[in-house]
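Duplicate of #3305? Posting structure anyway:
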């Protein structure tokens, strides 16, 4: 387990199916994530398959953030698109429980430490719905810089919506 002061990060496991099922089907979580590749809804079997697929991919790491006081899962941090030749990856945050900026920020910083230190990455980037200013602020407090806006890149609630593209370089990382 990667430990911070308030949260820890553990690898996603097949036993996380119930919590991931709840998060992936929660409209608030779905809107905050803005992920256009998600299905309209997930069955338990589909979530189990999704976890199995994720665990078999060498180009990603999925880390569950847990509250250190009670072990309760809080969210999922996805490190994907790992490209060893370019030393870069994408990071995403699916926060399944009530938003707590301190817990979210610490989880992000722990995941970044893993990405930069254990995976020797040079650059990590994120794509966040422009409507989710809370998460954009968390990324910026962690050191990310806005690179630009992806105009109308995802369709949610009957409307095309923008996303903000952010990045962080290894020399800009701060520790938790």
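Output from current build:
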């Amino acid at each position: 387990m990667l430990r911070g002061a308030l949260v820890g990060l553990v690898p996603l496991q097949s036993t996380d199916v119930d919590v991931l099922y709840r998060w992936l089907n929660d409209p608030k979580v779905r809107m905050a994530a803005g992920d256009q590749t998600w299905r309209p809804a997930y069955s338990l079997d589909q979530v189990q398959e999704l976890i199995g697929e994720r665990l078999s991919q060498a180009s990603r790491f999925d880390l569950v953030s847990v509250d250190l006081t009670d072990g309760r899962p809080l969210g999922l941090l996805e490190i994907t698109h790992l490209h060893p030749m370019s030393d870069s990856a994408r990071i995403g945050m699916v926060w399944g429980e009530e938003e707590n900026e301190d817990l979210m920020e610490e989880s992000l910083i722990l995941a970044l430490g893993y990405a930069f230190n254990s995976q020797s990455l040079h650059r990590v980037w994120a794509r966040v719905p422009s409507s989710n200013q809370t998460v954009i602020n968390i990324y910026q407090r962690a050191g990310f810089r806005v690179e630009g806006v992806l105009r109308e890149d995802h369709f949610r609630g009957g409307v095309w919506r923008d996303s903000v593209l952010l990045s962080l370089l290894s020399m800009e990382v701060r520790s938790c």
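Confirmed duplicate; merging threads. The chain has one domain: 2-172. Strands lie at 2-3, 7-11, 61-67, 73-83, 88-95, 123-129, 145-156, 159-169.
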